[in-house]
Amino acid sequence: MPYDVDQRIYRGAGEQHDGIGRLSAPPPWRSFDGETLADDDPARSARPDPRPGATDRARLYRPEQSVVDAVDAALLLRRPLLVTGRPGVGKSTLALSIAWELRLGPILSWSITSSSRLPDGLYRYDALGRLHDANLRRYERDSRPTVTPDNRTTTHQYITLGPLGTALVGRRRPRVLLIDEFDKSNIDLPNDLLNVLEQGEFTIDELARDESADAVEVATADGTAAQVRGGRVRCNAFPIIVITSNGERSLPEAFRRRCVLTTISDPDESQLEKIVRTQLGDERFHQAESIFKEFVRRRKTGESLPVDQLLNAIFLATSGSTGNSVTGQALARAVLGPAPAGDR
């Protein structure tokens, strides 16, 4: 059935719905046929994200229309979404919003550093743990886990899928994966990811060499379990992958071509006011309006002040015993930091 462009999958309007069920068939070149070997229980998918404040951040998030359009394009094309923007504009919150609105459960998260490598995202093999256990059982004939006779499934306690590996396990409903601060990665990681993201699969070498069972159960990054056959992990529903970048360095063109690109721009004064009123309420906005105006003025002079610093400052200025007091104002300005010498 053709996709109705007026009936969006993701809306960014702060309301949960089952729009993921309306997702049309993928383009022929992005259709995956992996088995559904993971638990797709809707009740489990609906559980709240355990991160502090994650549900409220997701519910109150209001992306600009161009970002909503980019999310829907990525969903329909089964492509990763590459989101650029300055720190604090809401790039990571976008992933929370998508997962919450579409009832896809807690997000998976892979925070990138300069030492991050592709295997870190796919799976971890505890070779030392296996060697230690093998030595403890060195007099036994076979140290492998016992095969369950009814379904030929073993539990492999030495392999744990990483966040990307967990996202690629076969499911009827996609998982949301946040790959955060990707521009901090080493120079090889973008190119290393190309084949995995294009093919929607990877191989666990340690299992591919083991033909003792038809299926192996392994742990996942979110504390559940998934089955793997023949060492091959292949998605069925391509995961919703949100890759964030602060724009600190350019990414390879080959990598960018395989993503849907969007930029979250710095909010203007009216958008900032809407964010504060939505997150903290009208009363707190009025109580700390002087701090709000100072924040806006300093940003206009070129200071790089993240939006979350404004929210933290207003919260301190209007909360509890510090609310609307000299102490509260002082704490709020401590969060914002001193203004540049020429701007005082």
Kindly describe this structure:
- The protein has helices spanning 42-45, 54-60, 65-77, 91-101, 118-122, 127-136, 163-167, 189-199, 205-208, 253-257, 269-280, 282-287, 289-300, 307-317, 326-336, and strands at residues 81-84, 108-111, 123-125, 153-161, 176-180, 201-203, 215-219, 225-228, 232-234, 240-245, 260-263.
- It has 344 residues and is of the alpha/beta class.
- The protein has 2 domains: 19-263, Rossmann fold, CATH 3.40.50.300; 269-343, no CATH class.
- The strands form 3 sheets. A 5-stranded parallel beta sheet has the order 2-5-10-1-11.
- The longest helix has 13 residues, at 65-77.
- 32% of the residues are buried.
The share of residues in helices is 25-40%
Mean pLDDT: 85
* Order of secondary-structure elements: HHHEHEHEHEHEHEHEEEEHEHHHHH
Termini gap? 61 Å
Measured by DSSP, the beta-strand proportion falls in 5-15%
CATH domain fold name of the largest domain: Rossmann fold
- Order of strands across the main sheet: 2-5-10-1-11
Q: Specify Rg, calculated over alpha carbons.
A: 23 Å
Largest sheet: 5 strands, parallel
How many domains? The number is 2
Q: Globular, elongated, flat, extended or rod-shaped: what is the shape?
A: elongated
Q: CATH class of the largest domain, anyone?
A: Alpha Beta
Number of strands: 11
Low-pLDDT residue intervals, each spanning 5 or more residues: 146-151
State the CATH superfamily name of the largest domain.
P-loop containing nucleotide triphosphate hydrolases
